[in-house]
Amino acid sequence: MSKVLLITGASRGIGAETARLAAARGYSLCLNYLHSEQAANELLQALTDGGHQAFLFQADVGQESEVEAMYRAIDREFGRLDGLVNNAGILERQSDLVDMDPDRWRRVFDINVIGSFLCAREAVKRMSTKTGGDGGAIVNVSSRAADIGGPHEYVDYAAAKGAVDAMTIGLAKEVGDQGIRVNAVKPGLIYTDIHAAGGEAGRVDRLKSNVPMQRGGYPAEVAEAILWLLSDASGYTTGSFIDVSGGR
Ligand code: NAP
Q1: Collapsing DSSP states into helix, strand and coil, what is residue 32?
Q2: Up-side HSE of residue 148: CA atoms within 13 Å toward CB?
Q3: Mind listing the pLDDT tens digit for each residue in 107-145?
Q4: Which of 157, 191, 218, 236 is the catalytic position?
Q5: In what helix (H) or strand (E) does residue 244 lie, and over which residues does it extend?
Q6: pLDDT computed for residue 1 by the predictor
Q7: Domain total of the chain
Q8: Which domain covers residue 60, as residue numbers?
Q9: Can you say whether residue 55 is alpha, beta or left, with left for phi > 0 and alpha for psi between -120 and 50 degrees?
Q10: Which residues, 6+ apart, have CB-to-CB distance to 1 below 8 Å?
Q11: Does any ligand 1 atom lie closer than 6 A to the CB of residue 18?
Q12: Is 113 in the pocket of ligand 1 (CB under 6 A)?
């Protein structure tokens, strides 16, 4: 049977591109989305038209009951799990920290941090060789913002990705003897809709002159790194990070 992969936030951007590449590499997919139903349906249609196995599941990754229901659907549909890409993420409008409120911080941490923790927990339960699983791989989609800090834009988002980095290191150590590898990619400035959510759709083009490679990156370039970390080719790599940021 083909390997089974859950990709959160698969309806758009990096998640959708990761889904296309994973399907091409033979994975069976659970594609999670929240609001973008039409985009998710179009992606599913394209994949199934191409003969790939996939199903959609609408869930807010920040909600425990919804994440648990999504994993039960994977259990029913495929009866196994080999990988998780913790990709779903949000940022809010660019702002100094002094002008932010706790409701915003809670939203940012609920989805970027609690969502990644919840999905990782349910994946470990199913993949751990200690509980009858066959092992597997988790790839967290962090951000170079965790290292740069996101000043005047979104220090909260950067801090949330810092928490994801710490989880990557700690969980990799916890489950290293359970057949599960945990790694992260750290994208830089990638052309997706996330920048419009921050209030500046043209952000990548404004900042690309600060990138040593003098350009923004593409979702497919991030997807390649994610697929490598999921694959057996990275079999001795855990608790590691790949910057996909053109050197920035
Ligand atoms: P995007 O185009 O805005 O896509 C975000 C995806 O996350 C969408 O599929 C969205 O689904 C999903 N999502 C948001 N909230 C969700 C929730 N509560 N539950 C489930 N799914 C949810 O963003 P992107 O740039 O591809 O970002 C993907 C990941 O890369 C994020 O973790 C982001 O932080 C990270 N990243 C991006 C960049 C960049 O420059 N683009 C840089 C560094 C890191 P719906 O639309 O269906 O709601």
Answers
A1: strand
A2: 20
A3: 999 999 999 999 999 999 999 999 999 999 999 999 999
A4: 157
A5: strand 241-244
A6: 76
A7: 1
A8: 4-244
A9: beta
A10: 28, 80
A11: no
A12: no
